[in-house]
TrEMBL record:
Residues 8-262 form the FAD dependent oxidoreductase domain. This is FAD-binding oxidoreductase. It comes from the Bacteria. It comes from Nocardia amamiensis. InterPro entries: FAD-dep_OxRdtase, FAD/NAD-bd_sf. The lineage of its organism: Bacteria, Bacillati, Actinomycetota, Actinomycetes, Mycobacteriales. Pfam families: DAO.
């Protein structure tokens, strides 16, 4: 690079972390501005917001109602497999997609729909493998999905499907991203809330933010990457009032972590389709699971104001003070899912989380990639409808950044392809010394669980003993070990 450009990334969810890592690998100097602060000294507050309740690395199997959503997710899953280390799966195998018997009895051919979707996944994967043999990360296309005769330990099953969809553990994702950000030499500024971004006459960006000590700070960046989830729309619109967004839905959702006092023999996610017949049991390890049941989880769905791009006022209030129906809805979820999953009989709720999902339609059965917006030359916006699409979108936004550097004369056009490929290489190629010790790795993950305000028991992988979670550490440095948001 002829002149090292300074790039500012706003937000350190999975989208921002990936933007920072890939831009830094490409040779840019990168500053991340993240409004949250770490609750555990020596860690970065990464994935503390929506990215802290993610449990599925989708393959499209969950979207039998929309082939394009299935294809988008499979593309994400393929590149994620090459980017993330095995650690993030925490001993989980594949996910079982389950068609409910009650849904069939009620006249919906969910089994037929799932079978048709398996064909969509197989043929899309075959096409991707043909385009590039390196995409063959799940083996032979004909063998990547199959119907399984039964799903032991789950009630009300008409058919089960094994697919490349794979559950992962958000705490271990943060552990990996924190290490990789350090490896890349990213300048991570926590407690930094971006207030305004303006494009200067020279084409660079003035980024103003409030720092951790409350003082007003600013940076002049060659390029900016807006990864601040719902807040990114307003930032982008201010930079370019002519920008056209699709109709955007902000869905307020409730999701729970529960304990598993009787353990579980399922080191995989069970996803039952659909709505009142459905729901998800995603064990993170033998001691804890994430659960979700659509009718109780789907609280509200508001269309974003296309002019102001403002976040709905009532959402702000609910995310701060809680929703009045939150507890009742959480109990309803647990009670309903006990009908499907016997291991929940004695479970208790460890934490209830309110989150906002972003989509281009009101129907959650469709989840197409929103893509990356070129806001202005040198400014991109990445808002993920699904975690699964994080690497696909990071590659797109890096390409836009590199192309802008070509225009600026800082890199040669011929360098773009090579820089792109090198920057999307796997994480964990040089792994930390503690990666080889399960105990040390669990201790790192536990610190992130505290940062992310999720139960510390998430730090365990399948096969870890539950008492190892308390053996090595003293808990949160400020003594605040609450597990709810
Ligand atoms: C209930 C639920 C379950 C889900 N489950 C899955 C799943 O299993 N699989 C899947 O693929 N997807 C899932 N998703 C979607 C997934 O959670 C999101 O697509 C993804 O986590 C979004 O990541 P992000 O980085 O865009 O946003 P976030 O993780 O929200 O990160 C945005 C960051 O920006 C920071 N920020 C905001 N404003 C500012 C500012 N002004 N200055 C500085 N920083 C700022 C925030 O603090 C935050 O850290 C789920 C969503 C919901 C709601």
């Amino acid at each position: 690079m002829k002149r090292t450009e300074l790039h500012v990334v706003v937000g350190a969810g999975v989208a921002g972390c990936l933007a920072a890592i890939t831009r830094s690998r490409a040779g840019y100097a990168v500053v991340v501005l993240e409004k949250e602060r770490a609750r555990f000294a020596g860690t970065y507050p990464v994935c503390t917001q929506t990215s802290n309740i993610v449990s599925e690395n989708h393959s499209g199997a969950e979207y039998p109602f929309d082939p394009q959503s299935a294809r988008d997710c499979l593309d994400g899953r393929i590149v994620n497999d090459r980017f993330f280390p095995e650690l993030i799966y925490s001993g989980k195998t594949y996910s079982r997609i389950i068609a409910s018997q009650s849904m069939m009895t009620d006249g919906h051919d969910i089994v037929g729909q799932c079978r048709a979707n398996m064909d969509v996944i197989r043929s899309h994967y075959a096409q991707r493998c043909q385009e590039d043999p390196a995409n063959a990360v799940f083996g032979e296309p004909s063998a990547i999905c199959r119907e399984i005769p039964d799903v032991p330990g789950v009630l009300d099953v008409a058919a089960g499907f094994l697919t490349p969809q794979r559950g992962m553990n958000p705490v271990l994702v943060s552990t990996v991203l924190d290490w990789e950000l350090r490896e890349c030499g990213v300048d991570f500024r926590e407690g930094s809330t971006v207030t305004t971004i303006d494009r200067r006459a020279d084409g660079r960006y003035l980024v103003e933010y409030t720092s951790a000590d409350g003082s007003a700070e600013s940076l002049i960046a060659d390029q900016v990457s807006l990864c601040a989830a719902t807040a990114a729309f307003g930032m982008a619109r201010k930079l370019n009032p002519a920008l056209n967004f699709p109709r955007l839905f902000m869905a307020l959702r409730g999701i729970l972590y529960v304990d598993l006092p009787d353990g579980t023999d399922k080191n995989f996610t069970c996803l039952k389709l659909e709505d009142s017949y459905g729901g998800m049991l995603s064990p993170l390890n033998e001691h804890c699971a994430m659960i979700y049941h659509p009718p109780a989880a789907h609280i509200m769905n508001v269309v974003m104001n296309p002019e102001t791009c403002e976040f709905p006022v009532e959402y702000r209030q609910y995310l701060t003070a809680g929703h009045p129906e939150m507890e009742e809805r959480a109990e309803r979820t647990l009670t309903r899912l006990r009908d499907f999953y016997p291991e929940l009989a004695r479970s208790e709720i460890l934490g209830t989380y309110l989150k906002v999902a972003i989509n281009t339609v009101s129907d959650s059965r469709i989840r197409r990639n929103i893509g990356v917006f070129g806001v202005q030359p040198g400014a991109t916006m990445t808002v993920l409808p699904k975690w699964t699409m994080c690497v696909v979108n990071a590659r797109t936004e890096l390409r836009l950044a590199l192309e802008h550097s070509v225009v600026n004369g800082n890199i040669e056009a011929g360098e773009v392809a090579e820089l792109l490929a090198a920057s999307i290489r796997s994480c964990w190629e040089t792994s930390p010394a503690w990666a080889d010790s399960v105990e040390a790795c669990t201790d790192q993950a536990r610190k992130h669980a505290i940062n992310m305000r999720v139960p510390e028991v998430l730090a365990l992988r399948f096969g870890n003993r539950a008492d190892s979670i308390t053996a090595g550490g003293s808990g949160s440095p400020d003594g605040n070990r609450d597990i709810s948001e």
